[in-house]
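Records of this kind hold a single protein each, on a pair of labelled lines. With that in mind, the following record should read easily:
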Amino acid sequence: MKKPSIPTFLSSFSTSGPIRFQAFDLLATLVAVVRTNGCVVFANAALEDALGTSRRTIEGSQLPDCFTEPQILRHALEGAGSNEFAALRYDAWLRRLNHEPMPVHVVVAQTDTAGEAIVEMLPLEQQAKQDREERLIDQAQANKELIRNLAHEIKNPLGGIRGAAQLLQMEIDKDLTEYTQVIIHEADRLQTLVDRLLAPHRRPHLVGDVNIHEVCERVRSLILAEFPKGLRVVRDYDTSIPEFRGDREQLIQAVLNIAHNACQVLAERMAAAEARITFKTRIARQVTFGKQRYRLALELHVIDNGPGVPDSIKDRIFYPLVSGREGGSGLGLTLAQTFVQQHHGLIECDSRPGHTDFKLLIPLP
């Protein structure tokens, strides 16, 4: 269904004073209702936060003066007032109190009221984030189809190769069986790889009540058992996070895959007893990801102080069979992303030398 424009959205509310604009406070984008002379009639809460000043101060002021190039908005408002266009878009810099100017994409649109316009300002960082999330979702869907098709294509020939090698082994001299054993061993190794690729699509989604901190504690105990020396696991939990419906085992596997990858790249820091992984949980409010807006979402950060993700694979780390270390299968992050997306969530990565942060976002009821 097509998303209604902001002017249409506005017209569905009462036309009496501030009540007419209250719905704009629910939006994450910055919105101002202005007269075509530039005077602000209403500023929503998001704009108030972005400018770092009170709504009372903004309302009655000149909105063009909030931009580094005010004349562009003045011309746009004049055009809206004279019906030269229904909507106009351009990029600009928004001034902020005690902060650097913010790059925004500005949309100026007419309303149903003469002499009035709506100015919507979308931070370009937010737009880039939304584009990145959409790419991740599309990428994960493409990966899913590729993996399923490729795995099935490999699986049948593998069974034939292994069976033929077993029959051949019964017919040849014992001195030559080491060669058939190599064939059987490699066929079994590939079969294991294929099974791992298909695992998320075979196993039923077992939904129950999940406490995210129990998931973190389980992963913590597993990685400390495998890496007992030189590694410190820091817990930074928001204990107010409620339980939610999900597949506990899938989430344990997703977090474990990320944490295990981190441990493997922390080898040098472990030798110096400086390796650190942090599990950090928070509640995010009024967030948009996966093309949907959620009132509440779980943020689980798995942060390490390792060397960071190599630049050469930063954009491809969730692709299957892409690995940043020697001997890696390249499946851990792919499977983690699949498991989290089965909870209508998403995994993002922010990495630089000394700080890599994998953020799991999962909607909360």
